[in-house]
Amino acid sequence: MVELRDVSFSFDGERNVLDHVSLSLGPGEHLVLLGRNGSGKSTLGKLLNGSLRPSRGSVLFDGDDVSAAPRAVLARATGYVRQDPLTQIVSDLCSDEVAFGPRNLGLSRDEVRHRVAEALETCGIAGLAQRLTSELSGGQQQLLALAGALALRPRHLVLDEAESHLDQAARSRMRAVVRGLVAAGVAVLEIAHSGEALLDATRVIVLSGGAVAWEGAPEDFLRCREALETSGLAEDPVTVALASAVSDGAPLSRAGLVESLAPYVPESAARPTRGVEVCPLRAEGVVVSYDGLPVLRGVGLDTEGLTLLLGASGSGKTTLARVLAGVLAPDAGAATLGGAPVRAGMVGLSFQRPEDQLFCETVLDDVAYGPRARGAGDDEARELARSAAARLGVGEELLGRSPFSLSGGQMRRVALAGVVAARPGAYVFDEPSAGLDAPGRAELARVVRMLVDEGAAVVVITHDAGEWLDVADDVVYIRDGVIVATASAADARRRPGLFDAAGLEAPLLVRARAAREGATHA
């Protein structure tokens, strides 16, 4: 068992990120930790695995105070999978990455090989053993990070938004793995921004302002409006449907879940009306290969509104995003905006990892960089930056801080604000909602819809399709570098078969809506 007793933590010695927090995590428990961006969730997770030491209070492991013990004491017992897998991947070869931890435990060569093979197989990525870690998609890297943690056979496991880069099928695999670990007695702390996490929880804690604001059973959480509001999940579509079902007496269980939720999912929304004529963003016959390995094979895409690009991890989505933004020249084919060849800077690109595009000393300067690069004077650039920051929910109190002092979700908002502030002719957002809390995701969807209504073409690459379908115009499905289907968002909301064709698992709300309408097949 690992415990926090009256723990506070501060990075600067002035402002507490965590304030008098106490909790325990026992064998076979699945504790889901909820809270808005910046509430202290990731900091709490790092205290549990020894990455951080408390400013005050105690960390106990099996009853012994280990607050001042070597970090390895907790690190060996507590696996940690971060929101961004690249922050914990240290090896070039996938098999070496998974072997890194067991080797450092001094295990025999045969035992290390056994654990590596077992962990890769458990995570469904045995075929990646001899691949370079740098060649993997974000989702594949996330599964690799999980395999590395499992190879240590930890007694506790901390998952910090570990599903954020995974498609629905990979999320289902990860959840099955975690359920097996819990059944075997492993204690799991899951930091989440999704209502689906509640289905596996034995207990829920809500953090607010670095303090525990609510604690109890997942069913009680769903019945408590105040707890829902504090967690940020009050308007999350899946959570709303789960709360309605539980309030009507339905059990909170994965068994029969789709049928249980079917009466409570919202009606299919009407297709949004475009406010103005949009300058089209197109890809025609795009071919890209890396070291002779084909990634995109004659891809064509045409968007004059908000288009979702959906596909499994490794299907070529991010490569297509770079071509559309003009930062990657294809081997064949072309990307155009309004009929003109796309050059770098014409299309705003938001990367999967916001850290890759943040570099200034303050948030305000970072957001203002794009307008300055396009010729705006200092006053105008700062005005545009403040406006974009406000639209993306970046508060005035954050503008003077270093972007690297922020939480993952806050960094995501700042990076998106920097793209929007530059006012390009079109946008490509690659996993823009990863790491955002539910209010942040909803606000982002509204902002992106406004960009389209103002005349910009937008492509959104996402594993959170269920949250984008109500604001999208069209959906494009890609599989193994080939476009396999194109549909209106209205059709995609109720046809799981479209997702099946792309090797994807349809979002929960899509499956529930299809079950209610009796349209379980494409």
Note down, in words, how this protein is organized.
- The structure is a single chain.
- The chain has 522 residues and is of the alpha/beta class.
- The chain has 2 domains: 262 residues, 3-Layer(aba) Sandwich (Rossmann fold), CATH 3.40.50.300; 237 residues, 3-Layer(aba) Sandwich (Rossmann fold).
- 35% of the residues lie in helices and 23% in strands.
- The protein is built from 19 helices and 20 strands.
- The strands form 4 sheets. A 6-stranded mixed beta sheet has the order 6-7-8-3-9-10, with helices on both faces. Strands 16-17-18-13-19-20 form a 6-stranded mixed beta sheet, sandwiched between helices.
- A hairpin with a 2-residue loop joins strand 4 and strand 5.
- Helix 3 runs parallel beside helix 5.
- The radius of gyration is 23 Å and the shape is globular.
- It starts with a strand and ends in a 5-residue tail after the last helix.
- 53% of the residues are buried.
- The model has no long low-confidence stretch (mean pLDDT 90).
